[in-house]
Structures are given as structure tokens and as C-alpha cells.
Amino acid sequence: MYSTIVVGAGVAGTVIARELTKKDEKVLIIEKKNHIGGNCFDARDEHGVLIHPYGPHIFHTNSEVVRTYLNEFTDWRDFHHEVVANVHGKYMPVPFNLHTLKEAFPEEADALKEKLTAAYGMGNKVPILDLMNHEDPDLQKIGKFVYDNIYVYYTMKQWGKKPEEIDPAVTARVPVNVSYDNGYFADKYQGLPKEGFTPMFDAMLNHPNITVELNTEAKDVLKLERGRKYFRGEEFDGKVIFTGPLDEFFDCKYGRLPYRTLRFDFEYYDKADFQDGHSVVNYTVSEDFTRITEYKWLTGQDCEGTTISKEYPFAYTGAEGEIPYYSIANPENEALYQKYKADVEEYKDFYLLGRLAEYKYYNIDVMVEKALDLSAKIS
Ligand code: UDP
User: Fold this and answer.
1) CA 345 to centroid of ligand 1, rounded, Å
2) How does pLDDT run across 24-51, given as a tens digit for each residue?
């Protein structure tokens, strides 16, 4: 009855399901959670405030292809995302930029700016560790300030490791910007779906050739045995697009792929504003949580009260209710991932796609692009 089974109704699964309908495929999506949208899911809380239960998601891209693709399913609230760090009670723009420089070194800011622009050029991005290793003591000093006040404590909380111990690609996400741009992202398009992420996913899944089954765990219904795929006990010859955690599908037989997870503590306040209009405040030198998100400033919702979330990272254990959020890139984990991957390679028409299935830290736009590419390749 179905030509393709997609495991997971997040970005990857939803986009590829929709794409495959263009090739007249009949697609079944099985989703473990009781809702669509994966971690982009948003919903109103009991106070009517639109929140992101799995943490703040902001769409950003430079890709015309991705933007045009999503335009079919949503209008946008354009939103230039800015983040501040709370450094001993003072708000400072993050990523560190020339405005932050002025706040951090009010007396020397002009001279330091000259040095920064001479060394790296106006408008460029510098990885923090480069700055710290620079031969000029003044540039080292800026690097040390950023390391001590923006990076080290936040990164320890987020990853349980020091910045130099984690994949440089992760800290490169938040560089030092030699510019006056307070933006968190540099992309041309930034924003949130006007009515929310869930309605956008709903629109994508609203197609006669797509069926979604929620509350369905893949390993309960899908089996791989001796080169054959089985769905609910019957051999299944169609395509399977798997977007879930591969280790858990195989009961972690080679061991668990490590992830960081997060706990979100939501609080509602019966007042118009909690953190001076800032959607996200990073706590880079204090507190056990990494950041506070105040949702109304992200979504633009006009509501009387306000809901915030505090975000507490910890090591994922696979316990009930925990979500594997961030894969941890290092050679050992990659080798473990490859063992699982090798086990599915002999299965014809079985494809791995997405943050979990590929064990990669992808942004939303990259995920859309990858889903479009895979669909084009296999259909
Ligand atoms: N980071 C930091 N201080 C900040 C923001 C980010 O040290 O104020 C580091 C931290 O290691 C983090 C990484 O930069 O994990 C990437 O941050 P990003 O905001 O991209 O993470 P996400 O929003 O995906 O959780």
C-alpha cells in the first residue's frame, strides 16, 4: 500500500515525504512522539503563550532554494536574531563584536579596534582560539576576555568540556565578529514561520499521499533481517528513509552514541516582560542553566504575560523522556557511528537522513537541503 516508509516527522522526514509525493509515491511516516515537527514543534502553553517546548528555533539561511521551497508552506515573520550574554549582571552582545569590545574595554576600544581590523579585516569572523593564540598581546587580551566571559563557562555547561576539547566546528558557530553587527546569524533570510513551526509542518504533511502515524516506535514495527526489510511482520520492498537515532534502532548493541541533552524549565510571569525585550540571554559566567529564552520576543506574539525557559544541559542516558539533542563529534564517536551505519548498508533502499540518523549537528536549512537532495537522488 505504501511505497515509502519514513521514520520520523521532523524536518528531514517531513520534507522528504512531501518531495516523494511529487513522484507519486505513497508515504507512511511513523513518529515516536505524539506530535509532528520534531524538535521544531511549537505550541501554546496553558497561558496561551506560543512556546518551543524543545528550545528556541530560529530559521536562517542564505539558500534561495530552501527559502523558496518553504515559502510554499508558510509566510514569515522576519526576525533578525540578536543574543546578549549576561556577564556579571551586564548585557553584552554575542557573538562578541565591536559593540561588545566597547563595553568590555571602554578606554582602549578604539585602539583595539584598529588592531583587530588590521589583523583580520573589517567584516570578517575570527575563531576565538585564533585570537587567543595571536602573537600580539592586545589581541590575545581580547581573546582571553571572550574566552573567560563568553565561552569557557557556557561551553563547560553545554558540553561538559572546555572549548579546546570540543570540535572546532561547534565553537566556530559563535566566532568573534570584526563588525558592528549584533546579529547572531549572518544569513540573508532569518525568521520564524508566521503562524509557528507546527502549522508549517502541518501544511507540508497535508497531502493525500502522506499518512502520519504518531506514537509509533520504529523498532516495534520495522525490522531488518538478513538483507530484507519487514514492516509489521510483512516483507517491505519499498524505500525506508530513517531519520531517528540509529543506535537505539539496534538496541544500542555496539554501545550508545553519546549525545548532550537538555532539560527546559518553563516559567510563566504575569507581566509584560521578563528580560528587557531580549529573546535570548546567555548566562556565560554564572548560573547552572545556559540560557533563558523569552518566547514572545522570538515569536512576536502580543500577549499580556510572558513565558520563559531555562535550559539545563546534561549527558544523555536514554532514560524515558530524554531527547538526544546534540551529537558529540570526535573520532571515537564517529567510529562507533560507522559501525551502526555499516549494518544498514547491505539493505537496499534504506536511507539515513538527518541530525540523528547521520549523527551530525545540522541547522534547519541544511536539513531541508539534504532532504531535497536525497529525494532527487533516489526517485
Ligand atoms: N557558545 C558559548 N557562549 C555563548 C554562545 C555559544 O560558549 O554565549 C559556544 C558553546 O560551546 C555552544 C557553541 O558556542 O555550544 C554553539 O552555540 P550555538 O548558539 O550555535 O548553539 P545552539 O543554539 O545550537 O545550542
Assistant:
1) 34
2) 999 999 999 999 999 999 999 999 999 9
Distance 317 CA to ligand 1 centre (A): 22
Helix axes 11-21 and 197-205, enclosed angle (nearest 10): 30
Q: Hey, whose CA ends up nearest to atom 11 of ligand 1?
A: 155
Query: In a 3-state reduction of DSSP, which class is residue 267?
Result: strand
What spacing in Å lies between the alpha carbon of 138 and ligand 1's midpoint? 25
Domain boundaries, the chain: 4-78+191-255+328-378, 83-177, 259-315
Distances (CA, A) of 316 to 157, 257, 378: 14, 9, 33
Ligand 1 centre distance from Cα of residue 261 (Å): 14
4-78+191-255+328-378 adopts what CATH topology? Rossmann fold (3.40.50)
| Cα–Cα dist 74/64, whole Å | 15
Dump pLDDT digits (tens) for 159-204.
999 988 999 889 888 899 999 999 999 999 999 999 999 999 999 9
Q: Which three cell numbers stand for residue 362?
A: 545540522
Q: What is the pLDDT of residues 78-109, one digit of tens each?
A: 999 999 999 999 999 999 999 999 999 999 99
> What average pLDDT does range 335-346 have in this prediction?
97
Query: What cell numbers appear for 68 in the block?
Result: 523558496
Atom of ligand 1 nearest to the CA of 150: 3
Q: Which residues line the pocket of ligand 1, CB cutoff 6 A? A: 85, 94, 150-151, 154-155, 158-159, 170-171, 173-174, 282, 284
